[in-house]
Each structure stands twice: as structure tokens, then as C-alpha cells.
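Running this now, will post back.
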Amino acid sequence: MSDNESIPRVDLGILAKVPKWRFYSHLFPSKVGAKPAWLSLKPLPTVDNLKCGICSEVCIFLLQIYSPLIESDDSFHRTIFVFICRNPNCSLPNDSRNIVVLRSCLPRENRFYSYIPPDYDSETANRSAPSECYYQSLCALCGCVGQKKCGSCQRIYYCCKSHQVLDWKEGHKEECGVLQIGRNDNTIEEGAKSFETELTKSNFSVEELEKMAFSKSDRTFENFKKIVKVHPEQMIRYSRKGTPLWITDENQLNVDDVPNCQYCGSRRVFEFQIMPHLVYKLGLDSIGKSLDWGVISIFTCEKSCTDTSNNYLREFAYKQDVTN
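Update: finished.
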């Protein structure tokens, strides 16, 4: 924390490989890729809650940040989930309609998790942990609620037809009929092609950021490069009630234009931003159409309000790109 208490703290998230069992929901992970480790285990978001605002297909999980508010009884456990449409045609410049952000909160005393903190160092102690699949069937591809079943093996569920088709192409065609019971018994069991890693805090200098080759140059971008160069591996900049680190002079969001919370009417505040280096790490960058972004800034309800009828509340994302 700076000596100037008016300057919000900034925590940096980097990627680190950890054992699969560390992604159990009751260990409250921050993670990138594969399937979400849901916080509130029931009910989960429906397909309609996760549709892309451009093509209406179901978005896939990008990352989640565990960000508890200890001072709030209702938000003792709190996780922000970010989903994105996998269709590159929906990744339009400075357009955030292909991104879905959901916030889930739980009090310390709740029906899913123990009041006592879990053992973060023992795999054995965590094998009988509560799981969202105890309450509902889950999509084999994305980990969301599975409403459709494979007509052949009758064992695997999907949230929508498009995810069933994708999973068929990505391996289920060969596995169908010879699967071992239990493939969907734990959302931590991911496909070999999935990318999954933990987000941890960084407090040290690393090598210079790769693939930050934008042709646009302005004062804001030069400042962005100067700041990022100190910790070039940063994937997340977390600073609740702070300000985004804009990547260019153009298309900066005025905080007065951030919509208020649609549930309680409170203003939304900046919480964290997703950095462009994550595009490179996930292998999303390519020539032509691809999933990419300059920075994605996430704004959440200042009061972190809750709704007993809805455990996953929609929040606001703003994508700023560098355009030629």
C-alpha cells in the first residue's frame, strides 16, 4: 500500500500451474480456462444468462477472481466470473457485447461450505468436498448447467446443441459408448485440450512483455507500456474502487457512463481488468479474425448486493481495443 492512502492498492495476477485438486470450489480458487469452479453450487446460471449479446450462442468460461469482502456479512465469500463468446466474428473493436460477467456472493455461514477454513495443502482432505455436480447435471464442455443428454451414451450432458456438436468434434465421437461412469462427476476433470491455470499475485519483475506489437502510438499507450514493462507477465490488475489502466487515448470510458447496478440501483465501481498478455498466453491471437482485446475492465456493484432468488448477478464489462 502506498504512503498516500488515497491511492488504491493494485494487485497483479500472473499464471501459475497447480494440481487439479486445487481448483475445487470449496478452496475458492482464482483461475483461468477450462470450467468454472462455481461459488454458489445451486442454482447455477442458466443458458439464457450466458448468451453472447451478438450471436446469442452460449459464452465459454474465461476466468474467475475470488475477491471476498470480509467487512460484508453477505459477501464473506465472493467470486467474479467472466465468460466470452468463442466466435471470433463477435470480437468487434471496442464492443463488449460478447462478454458476460457474473458475481456470486455467500455469507461465511452457508449451506455449501464449512464455517471453518479448508485445508489448502492436503489433497486427501479435500476429496469429499461439496461439488456443483451433486445438485445438477453439468455440460461436459463448459461446466454450466446441462439440459441436454447425449442420445447415444446417455451419460454426458450439454448446456446447448452447439456445445454438444463441439464436444463431439473434440473427442466425444471416439469416447462415446466406451466412457467410464463418472466423467461428469467432478467439474475439475477437464479435457486434454483445455487450458487451466491458477492466478496468483506477482510482486517481482519478469521478462519484457511479448507480442505487444500495436501500431497505434499515443501518450496513454506509451504510459501503458511503461507501467506494464515493470511486470510484463501480469494478466490481471486488481484494484477495487481504483481506476483502469487505459491502453490508448481513444475510447476511454467515462466513469459516469458506467450503468448502475440493475438490482439495487447503487453505482458500480472498477474492480479489475484483464490484460492483453492473456490473449497471447491462451493462444488466441492470430492473423485475421481472432478472440482478442486491448484491456477488459470489470465494474461491479459498490454495495455488492445479493438476491436470495438469484445467486449469480450480472455485472458490467468494458472492452477497450487498440485500432489502427
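Confidence is low (pLDDT under 50) at residues 179-195, 202-216. More later if anyone needs it.
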